[in-house]
């Protein structure tokens, strides 16, 4: 309980984010059964104190901003095996970086004059998931490709990470399960 709000996590396929605590004796909590029924049936009278967020299927795109889009695309294709799925010309490209993930490579300053401008600068960080069984192969692969390992780390949950840089000095991480409580 925090600031008069009860927090609920997903129960079954429902995503209830907040239920407000009653402010007077006449107001009562919805029982879980009534709450499920209200959410399932979409009853406005039963749901007036329930706030539900729309469903999200997770992260789809991540962006890095680079000096030379073609050179960066070649790097990510050679090192990770990512394939280009869309070419934006000099402005950038999209690379398939997993089953349903896209790595966007944008030319620094190349997206400032579009309807929804964006840009980034500096040495950004991004991590890629790998199976624990591939960790040793990655170390050999990076060495064979002349890529210096900047750091190796074992996390409290048992996962391991290897850090290295791309051509624009973005900090890349390959991480095995056990880095986060959810991975």
Furnish the topology, listing elements before pairings.
Layout: E1 5-7, E2 18-20, H1 32-41, H2 44-47, E3 50-51, E4 61-66, H3 69-80, E5 83-87, E6 92-96, E7 102-107, E8 125-129, H4 135-144, E9 149-154, E10 160-165, E11 171-175
Parallel strand pairs: 4-7, 8-11
Antiparallel strand pairs: 1-2, 2-3, 5-6, 6-7, 9-10, 10-11
Kindly state the number of beta strands. 11
Poorly predicted regions: 1-22, 24-31
Euclidean distance between termini CA atoms? 27 Å
Q: What's the helix-strand series?
A: EEHHEEHEEEEHEEE
Structural class: alpha+beta
Overall body shape: globular
Q: What's the alpha carbon Rg, rounded to whole Å?
A: 23 Å
Under CATH, the homologous superfamily of the largest domain reads 2,3-Dihydroxybiphenyl 1,2-Dioxygenase, domain 1
CATH topology of the largest domain: 2,3-Dihydroxybiphenyl 1,2-Dioxygenase, domain 1
The biggest beta sheet, please? 4 strands, mixed
Count of discrete alpha- or pi-helical segments spanning 4 or more residues: 4
What is the number of independent domains? 3
CATH class of the largest domain: Alpha Beta
The percent range for strand residues is 25-35%
User: Could you give the order of strands across the largest sheet?
Assistant: 4-7-6-5
What is the residue-averaged pLDDT? 83
CATH architecture of the largest domain: Roll
Helical percentage = 10-25%
What does the model show?
The chain is globular, with a radius of gyration of 23 Å. It has helices at 32-41, 44-47, 69-80, 135-144, and strands at 5-7, 18-20, 50-51, 61-66, 83-87, 92-96, 102-107, 125-129, 149-154, 160-165, 171-175. It is α+β, with helices and mostly antiparallel strands. The strands form three sheets. Strands 4-7-6-5 form a four-stranded mixed β-sheet, covered by helices on one side. Strands 8-11-10-9 form a four-stranded mixed β-sheet, with helices on one face. It has a three-stranded antiparallel β-sheet with strand order 1-2-3, with no helix packed on it. 14% of the residues are buried. Strand 5 (83-87) and strand 6 form a beta hairpin.
């Amino acid at each position: 309980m925090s600031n008069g709000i009860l927090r609920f996590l997903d129960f079954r396929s429902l995503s209830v984010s907040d239920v407000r605590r009653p402010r007077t004796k006449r107001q009562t909590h919805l029982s879980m059964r009534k709450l499920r029924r209200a959410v399932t049936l979409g009853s406005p009278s039963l749901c007036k104190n329930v706030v539900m967020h729309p469903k999200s299927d997770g992260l789809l795109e991540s962006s890095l901003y680079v000096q030379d889009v073609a050179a960066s695309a070649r790097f990510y294709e050679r090192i990770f095996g990512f394939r280009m799925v869309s070419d934006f010309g000099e402005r950038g490209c999209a690379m398939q970086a997993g089953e349903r993930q896209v790595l966007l490579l944008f030319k620094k300053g190349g997206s400032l004059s579009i309807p929804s401008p964006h840009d980034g600068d500096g040495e950004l960080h991004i991590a890629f998931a790998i199976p624990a069984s591939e960790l040793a192969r990655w170390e050999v692969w990076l060495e064979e490709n002349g890529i210096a390992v900047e750091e190796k780390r074992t996390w409290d949950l048992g996962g391991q990470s290897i850090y290295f840089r791309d051509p624009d000095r973005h900090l890349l991480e390959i991480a095995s399960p056990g880095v986060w409580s959810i991975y």
